[in-house]
Amino acid sequence: MAQDDVLEQIDVRLAPREAERLAEEGFGLLGRVQRLAGERDQNFRLRTSDGVDYLLKISNSAEPPAVTDLQTRALLHMHAVDPDLPTPRLQPARNGEPQHSWTGADGRRSVVRLFSYLQGAPLYRAAVSPDLLTALGGALARVDLALRDFRHPAENHDLLWDVQHAGRLRPLTSEIDDPDVQRLAIAGLAAFAEKAAPRLPGLRAQFIHNDLNPHNVLVAENGTPSITGVLDLGDAVRAPLVDDLAVAAAYHVDLSDDPLCRVAHLMRGYHRVLPLTEQEIEVMGPLILGRLAMSATISTWRARRHPDNRTYILRNLPAAVLGLRRLLPLADDMIAERLWAALEDPGS
Q: Are 266 and 254 in contact (CB under 8 A)?
Protein backbone atom coordinates (compact mmCIF):
# COMPACT_ATOMS: atom_id res chain seq x y z
CA MET A 1 0.00 0.00 0.00
CA ALA A 2 1.28 3.44 -0.94
CA GLN A 3 2.00 5.62 2.06
CA ASP A 4 0.40 9.04 2.32
CA ASP A 5 3.29 11.33 3.27
CA VAL A 6 0.93 14.24 3.86
CA LEU A 7 -0.78 12.36 6.71
CA GLU A 8 2.55 11.47 8.31
CA GLN A 9 4.43 14.78 7.89
CA ILE A 10 4.26 17.00 10.98
CA ASP A 11 5.30 20.58 10.28
CA VAL A 12 6.64 22.98 12.89
CA ARG A 13 3.62 24.42 14.72
CA LEU A 14 3.21 28.05 13.71
CA ALA A 15 2.74 30.49 16.60
CA PRO A 16 -0.25 32.87 16.35
CA ARG A 17 2.05 35.90 16.02
CA GLU A 18 3.87 34.21 13.14
CA ALA A 19 0.57 33.45 11.42
CA GLU A 20 -0.42 37.10 11.77
CA ARG A 21 2.87 38.14 10.18
CA LEU A 22 2.26 35.68 7.37
CA ALA A 23 -1.17 37.15 6.68
CA GLU A 24 0.35 40.61 6.41
CA GLU A 25 3.31 39.47 4.34
CA GLY A 26 1.31 37.41 1.87
CA PHE A 27 -2.04 39.17 1.72
CA GLY A 28 -1.54 42.64 3.18
CA LEU A 29 -3.99 42.08 6.04
CA LEU A 30 -3.51 43.07 9.67
CA GLY A 31 -5.44 41.19 12.31
CA ARG A 32 -5.57 38.66 15.11
CA VAL A 33 -5.71 34.92 14.60
CA GLN A 34 -7.28 32.00 16.42
CA ARG A 35 -5.99 28.49 15.79
CA LEU A 36 -8.47 25.99 14.34
CA ALA A 37 -8.29 22.21 14.24
CA GLY A 38 -6.94 20.37 11.21
CA GLU A 39 -5.83 16.89 10.22
CA ARG A 40 -2.76 17.85 8.21
CA ASP A 41 -2.82 21.59 7.42
CA GLN A 42 -2.46 24.47 9.85
CA ASN A 43 -5.62 26.58 9.99
CA PHE A 44 -6.31 29.94 11.60
CA ARG A 45 -9.31 32.21 11.81
CA LEU A 46 -8.09 35.71 11.02
CA ARG A 47 -10.10 38.74 12.15
CA THR A 48 -8.97 42.06 10.72
CA SER A 49 -9.13 45.37 12.55
CA ASP A 50 -12.32 46.26 10.69
CA GLY A 51 -14.05 43.07 11.88
CA VAL A 52 -13.84 40.95 8.72
CA ASP A 53 -13.10 37.24 9.22
CA TYR A 54 -10.99 35.01 6.98
CA LEU A 55 -9.59 31.49 7.08
CA LEU A 56 -5.81 31.35 6.78
CA LYS A 57 -4.65 27.90 5.63
CA ILE A 58 -1.00 26.80 5.53
CA SER A 59 -0.71 23.58 3.56
CA ASN A 60 1.31 20.66 4.84
CA SER A 61 4.83 20.89 3.39
CA ALA A 62 4.63 17.27 2.20
CA GLU A 63 1.67 18.01 -0.03
CA PRO A 64 2.84 18.11 -3.68
CA PRO A 65 2.42 21.60 -5.18
CA ALA A 66 0.38 20.09 -8.00
CA VAL A 67 -2.17 18.77 -5.50
CA THR A 68 -2.48 22.13 -3.77
CA ASP A 69 -2.93 23.75 -7.17
CA LEU A 70 -5.57 21.14 -7.98
CA GLN A 71 -7.65 22.20 -4.97
CA THR A 72 -7.20 25.88 -5.75
CA ARG A 73 -8.19 25.53 -9.41
CA ALA A 74 -11.17 23.35 -8.53
CA LEU A 75 -12.50 25.98 -6.14
CA LEU A 76 -12.07 28.73 -8.72
CA HIS A 77 -13.80 26.53 -11.31
CA MET A 78 -16.79 25.92 -9.04
CA HIS A 79 -17.27 29.62 -8.43
CA ALA A 80 -17.15 30.33 -12.15
CA VAL A 81 -19.75 27.66 -12.95
CA ASP A 82 -22.08 28.25 -9.98
CA PRO A 83 -21.35 31.61 -8.31
CA ASP A 84 -24.01 31.05 -5.66
CA LEU A 85 -22.52 27.85 -4.28
CA PRO A 86 -21.97 28.18 -0.51
CA THR A 87 -18.22 27.52 -0.70
CA PRO A 88 -15.34 29.75 0.50
CA ARG A 89 -13.97 32.36 -1.87
CA LEU A 90 -10.23 32.60 -2.39
CA GLN A 91 -8.73 35.98 -1.54
CA PRO A 92 -5.86 37.06 -3.81
CA ALA A 93 -2.36 37.42 -2.43
CA ARG A 94 -0.37 40.64 -2.75
CA ASN A 95 0.94 39.52 -6.14
CA GLY A 96 -2.58 38.86 -7.44
CA GLU A 97 -2.21 35.08 -7.37
CA PRO A 98 -4.72 32.87 -5.49
CA GLN A 99 -1.98 31.58 -3.19
CA HIS A 100 1.25 32.62 -1.51
CA SER A 101 4.45 30.57 -1.24
CA TRP A 102 6.16 30.55 2.15
CA THR A 103 9.26 28.88 3.59
CA GLY A 104 9.14 28.02 7.28
CA ALA A 105 11.91 28.18 9.85
CA ASP A 106 12.67 24.51 9.18
CA GLY A 107 13.33 25.24 5.51
CA ARG A 108 10.20 23.47 4.30
CA ARG A 109 8.08 25.22 1.69
CA SER A 110 4.30 25.50 2.05
CA VAL A 111 1.47 27.09 0.12
CA VAL A 112 -0.59 29.67 2.01
CA ARG A 113 -4.15 30.52 1.02
CA LEU A 114 -6.69 32.95 2.43
CA PHE A 115 -10.40 32.15 2.20
CA SER A 116 -13.55 34.02 3.05
CA TYR A 117 -14.91 32.86 6.41
CA LEU A 118 -18.39 31.44 6.03
CA GLN A 119 -20.95 31.90 8.77
CA GLY A 120 -23.04 29.08 10.16
CA ALA A 121 -23.12 26.28 12.69
CA PRO A 122 -21.15 23.08 12.04
CA LEU A 123 -23.49 20.28 11.01
CA TYR A 124 -22.23 18.00 13.77
CA ARG A 125 -23.61 20.48 16.34
CA ALA A 126 -26.98 20.95 14.63
CA ALA A 127 -30.31 19.20 15.08
CA VAL A 128 -30.49 17.14 11.89
CA SER A 129 -33.98 17.05 10.38
CA PRO A 130 -35.25 15.34 7.22
CA ASP A 131 -35.46 18.72 5.47
CA LEU A 132 -31.88 19.58 6.44
CA LEU A 133 -30.63 16.23 5.11
CA THR A 134 -32.51 16.81 1.87
CA ALA A 135 -30.90 20.25 1.60
CA LEU A 136 -27.50 18.68 2.26
CA GLY A 137 -27.99 16.18 -0.55
CA GLY A 138 -29.00 18.96 -2.90
CA ALA A 139 -25.96 21.05 -1.97
CA LEU A 140 -23.62 18.12 -2.67
CA ALA A 141 -25.29 17.52 -6.03
CA ARG A 142 -24.70 21.17 -6.94
CA VAL A 143 -21.04 20.81 -6.02
CA ASP A 144 -20.77 17.75 -8.24
CA LEU A 145 -22.52 19.51 -11.12
CA ALA A 146 -20.15 22.46 -10.78
CA LEU A 147 -17.15 20.09 -10.89
CA ARG A 148 -18.47 17.89 -13.69
CA ASP A 149 -16.27 19.37 -16.43
CA PHE A 150 -13.25 20.18 -14.26
CA ARG A 151 -9.98 18.56 -15.28
CA HIS A 152 -6.44 18.91 -13.90
CA PRO A 153 -3.17 17.01 -14.40
CA ALA A 154 -3.14 16.01 -10.71
CA GLU A 155 -6.78 14.89 -10.47
CA ASN A 156 -5.80 11.20 -10.12
CA HIS A 157 -3.32 11.77 -7.31
CA ASP A 158 -2.78 9.00 -4.78
CA LEU A 159 -5.04 9.58 -1.78
CA LEU A 160 -5.40 7.31 1.22
CA TRP A 161 -9.04 8.41 1.69
CA ASP A 162 -10.07 7.47 -1.88
CA VAL A 163 -12.95 5.00 -1.47
CA GLN A 164 -12.40 3.34 -4.83
CA HIS A 165 -9.12 1.99 -3.42
CA ALA A 166 -10.47 0.97 -0.01
CA GLY A 167 -9.34 -2.62 -0.48
CA ARG A 168 -5.68 -1.73 -0.08
CA LEU A 169 -6.28 -0.80 3.58
CA ARG A 170 -6.80 -4.42 4.65
CA PRO A 171 -3.24 -4.74 6.09
CA LEU A 172 -3.83 -1.72 8.36
CA THR A 173 -6.70 -3.43 10.17
CA SER A 174 -4.04 -5.36 12.14
CA GLU A 175 -3.37 -2.12 14.06
CA ILE A 176 -6.92 -1.89 15.43
CA ASP A 177 -6.67 -2.86 19.11
CA ASP A 178 -10.34 -3.55 19.75
CA PRO A 179 -11.11 -7.04 18.35
CA ASP A 180 -14.76 -6.17 17.70
CA VAL A 181 -13.92 -2.98 15.81
CA GLN A 182 -11.27 -4.88 13.86
CA ARG A 183 -13.82 -7.55 12.90
CA LEU A 184 -16.30 -4.90 11.74
CA ALA A 185 -13.66 -3.08 9.68
CA ILE A 186 -12.50 -6.28 7.98
CA ALA A 187 -16.10 -7.22 7.16
CA GLY A 188 -16.80 -3.75 5.73
CA LEU A 189 -13.73 -3.86 3.51
CA ALA A 190 -14.67 -7.36 2.36
CA ALA A 191 -18.18 -6.23 1.40
CA PHE A 192 -16.70 -3.38 -0.61
CA ALA A 193 -14.16 -5.60 -2.36
CA GLU A 194 -16.75 -8.21 -3.33
CA LYS A 195 -19.80 -6.15 -4.19
CA ALA A 196 -18.66 -2.64 -5.15
CA ALA A 197 -15.06 -2.60 -6.42
CA PRO A 198 -15.68 -4.77 -9.53
CA ARG A 199 -18.55 -2.51 -10.64
CA LEU A 200 -17.00 0.91 -10.11
CA PRO A 201 -15.08 1.09 -13.43
CA GLY A 202 -18.38 1.00 -15.32
CA LEU A 203 -19.94 3.95 -13.45
CA ARG A 204 -19.81 7.69 -14.12
CA ALA A 205 -16.56 9.28 -12.96
CA GLN A 206 -15.50 12.87 -12.41
CA PHE A 207 -13.71 15.11 -9.92
CA ILE A 208 -15.58 14.95 -6.58
CA HIS A 209 -15.44 16.63 -3.15
CA ASN A 210 -14.96 13.25 -1.41
CA ASP A 211 -15.27 14.41 2.21
CA LEU A 212 -18.71 15.79 3.05
CA ASN A 213 -18.46 14.89 6.72
CA PRO A 214 -20.39 16.87 9.39
CA HIS A 215 -17.27 18.91 10.22
CA ASN A 216 -17.09 20.16 6.62
CA VAL A 217 -20.65 21.50 6.45
CA LEU A 218 -22.15 24.69 7.89
CA VAL A 219 -25.90 25.15 8.37
CA ALA A 220 -28.09 28.16 9.07
CA GLU A 221 -28.02 29.20 12.71
CA ASN A 222 -31.64 30.39 12.71
CA GLY A 223 -32.99 26.86 12.47
CA THR A 224 -34.01 26.94 8.81
CA PRO A 225 -33.01 23.80 6.86
CA SER A 226 -30.37 25.38 4.66
CA ILE A 227 -26.68 24.82 3.97
CA THR A 228 -24.49 27.91 4.38
CA GLY A 229 -21.11 26.32 3.79
CA VAL A 230 -19.45 23.35 2.08
CA LEU A 231 -15.81 23.37 3.15
CA ASP A 232 -12.45 21.75 2.45
CA LEU A 233 -11.41 20.26 -0.89
CA GLY A 234 -8.41 18.61 0.75
CA ASP A 235 -9.57 15.08 -0.17
CA ALA A 236 -10.99 15.92 -3.60
CA VAL A 237 -10.05 13.47 -6.35
CA ARG A 238 -11.30 12.05 -9.64
CA ALA A 239 -13.42 9.00 -8.79
CA PRO A 240 -16.81 7.39 -9.45
CA LEU A 241 -19.45 10.06 -8.94
CA VAL A 242 -21.46 7.87 -6.56
CA ASP A 243 -18.49 7.75 -4.18
CA ASP A 244 -19.22 11.35 -3.21
CA LEU A 245 -22.72 10.53 -2.04
CA ALA A 246 -21.58 7.33 -0.31
CA VAL A 247 -18.98 9.27 1.70
CA ALA A 248 -21.63 11.76 2.84
CA ALA A 249 -24.15 9.00 3.59
CA ALA A 250 -21.68 7.12 5.78
CA TYR A 251 -22.08 9.81 8.46
CA HIS A 252 -25.88 9.51 8.64
CA VAL A 253 -26.65 5.89 9.42
CA ASP A 254 -29.50 5.99 11.95
CA LEU A 255 -30.05 4.32 15.33
CA SER A 256 -33.74 3.71 14.64
CA ASP A 257 -35.37 0.55 13.32
CA ASP A 258 -34.65 1.96 9.86
CA PRO A 259 -30.89 2.64 9.80
CA LEU A 260 -31.22 4.05 6.27
CA CYS A 261 -33.85 6.65 7.17
CA ARG A 262 -31.46 9.61 7.20
CA VAL A 263 -29.48 8.29 4.25
CA ALA A 264 -32.72 8.14 2.24
CA HIS A 265 -33.46 11.84 2.88
CA LEU A 266 -29.91 12.74 1.88
CA MET A 267 -30.13 10.72 -1.32
CA ARG A 268 -33.54 12.15 -2.16
CA GLY A 269 -32.13 15.68 -2.07
CA TYR A 270 -29.20 14.66 -4.25
CA HIS A 271 -31.37 12.77 -6.74
CA ARG A 272 -33.67 15.75 -7.27
CA VAL A 273 -30.75 17.85 -8.47
CA LEU A 274 -28.54 15.19 -10.06
CA PRO A 275 -30.43 11.94 -10.80
CA LEU A 276 -28.71 8.69 -9.86
CA THR A 277 -28.63 5.61 -12.08
CA GLU A 278 -29.86 2.18 -11.10
CA GLN A 279 -26.30 0.85 -11.11
CA GLU A 280 -25.14 3.61 -8.75
CA ILE A 281 -27.88 2.89 -6.25
CA GLU A 282 -27.14 -0.85 -6.37
CA VAL A 283 -23.55 -0.27 -5.14
CA MET A 284 -24.45 2.35 -2.54
CA GLY A 285 -24.64 -0.10 0.36
CA PRO A 286 -21.21 -1.74 -0.09
CA LEU A 287 -19.71 1.67 -0.87
CA ILE A 288 -20.99 3.08 2.43
CA LEU A 289 -19.62 0.03 4.23
CA GLY A 290 -16.27 0.54 2.54
CA ARG A 291 -16.11 4.15 3.67
CA LEU A 292 -17.11 3.26 7.24
CA ALA A 293 -14.40 0.60 7.35
CA MET A 294 -11.89 3.11 6.01
CA SER A 295 -12.82 5.58 8.75
CA ALA A 296 -12.36 2.99 11.48
CA THR A 297 -9.07 1.74 10.05
CA ILE A 298 -7.33 4.97 9.06
CA SER A 299 -8.33 6.90 12.16
CA THR A 300 -7.11 4.15 14.48
CA TRP A 301 -3.85 3.79 12.56
CA ARG A 302 -3.19 7.53 12.59
CA ALA A 303 -4.16 8.06 16.23
CA ARG A 304 -1.52 5.57 17.31
CA ARG A 305 1.13 7.55 15.45
CA HIS A 306 -0.06 11.00 16.49
CA PRO A 307 -1.36 10.74 20.07
CA ASP A 308 -1.15 14.52 20.51
CA ASN A 309 -3.89 14.92 17.88
CA ARG A 310 -5.79 11.80 18.93
CA THR A 311 -9.06 13.52 19.85
CA TYR A 312 -9.36 15.24 16.49
CA ILE A 313 -8.31 12.17 14.49
CA LEU A 314 -10.80 9.87 16.26
CA ARG A 315 -13.72 12.29 16.18
CA ASN A 316 -15.65 10.23 13.61
CA LEU A 317 -14.72 6.74 14.89
CA PRO A 318 -17.84 6.15 17.06
CA ALA A 319 -20.14 6.95 14.13
CA ALA A 320 -18.15 4.66 11.84
CA VAL A 321 -18.40 1.74 14.26
CA LEU A 322 -22.11 2.37 14.75
CA GLY A 323 -22.66 2.48 11.00
CA LEU A 324 -20.86 -0.82 10.48
CA ARG A 325 -22.90 -2.49 13.22
CA ARG A 326 -26.17 -1.28 11.71
CA LEU A 327 -25.52 -1.95 8.02
CA LEU A 328 -23.44 -5.13 7.91
CA PRO A 329 -26.43 -7.37 8.83
CA LEU A 330 -28.38 -6.00 5.82
CA ALA A 331 -28.06 -7.58 2.39
CA ASP A 332 -26.91 -5.16 -0.31
CA ASP A 333 -30.07 -5.79 -2.38
CA MET A 334 -32.15 -4.94 0.70
CA ILE A 335 -30.30 -1.63 1.01
CA ALA A 336 -30.78 -0.86 -2.69
CA GLU A 337 -34.51 -1.63 -2.50
CA ARG A 338 -34.94 0.63 0.54
CA LEU A 339 -33.14 3.51 -1.18
CA TRP A 340 -35.00 3.07 -4.46
CA ALA A 341 -38.28 3.21 -2.56
CA ALA A 342 -37.24 6.51 -0.99
CA LEU A 343 -36.43 8.03 -4.38
CA GLU A 344 -39.62 6.82 -6.02
CA ASP A 345 -41.91 7.76 -3.12
CA PRO A 346 -40.93 11.05 -1.39
CA GLY A 347 -43.12 10.06 1.55
CA SER A 348 -41.24 6.85 2.32
A: no
> In which element (H, E) is residue 289 found?
helix 284-305
User: Looking at the domain assignment, is residue 149 inside a domain?
Assistant: yes
Range of the domain at 111: 5-65+88-116
- The model's pTM is 0.92
Is there a domain that residue 140 lies in? yes
Note every long-range contact of 60-64, with CB atoms under 8 Å and residues 24 or more positions apart, other chains counting. 60/6, 60/9, 60/11, 60/110, 61/9, 61/11, 61/104, 61/108, 61/109, 61/110, 62/5, 62/6, 62/8, 62/9, 63/6, 63/111, 64/154, 64/157
The total number of structural domains that make up the chain: 2
72 within domain boundaries: no
- Is residue 294 within 8 A of residue 161, CB to CB? The reply is yes
Claim to verify: residue 129 and residue 110 sit in the same structural domain: no
Summarised one tens digit per residue, pLDDT across range 249-299 is 999 999 888 999 999 999 999 999 999 999 999 999 999 999 999 999 999
Q: Label residues 52-88 b or e (16+ Cβ within 10 Å = b).
A: eebbbbbbbbbbeeebbbbbbbbbebbbeeeeebbbb
Nearest 5°: phi and psi at 51?
85, 15
Strands 109-116 and 90-91: antiparallel
Both 271 and 331 in one domain: the answer is yes
CATH number at 235 reads: 3.90.1200.10
Tell me, yes or no, whether 210 and 302 share the same domain.
Answer: yes
Which residues are CB-contacts of 224 (< 8 A; sequence separation ≥ 6)? none
Can you give 198-227 as a three-state secondary structure string?
A: HHHHHCCEEEECCCCCHHHEEECCCCCCCE
Residues 146 and 97 in one domain: no
Read off the pLDDT band of 11 (50, 70, 90): low
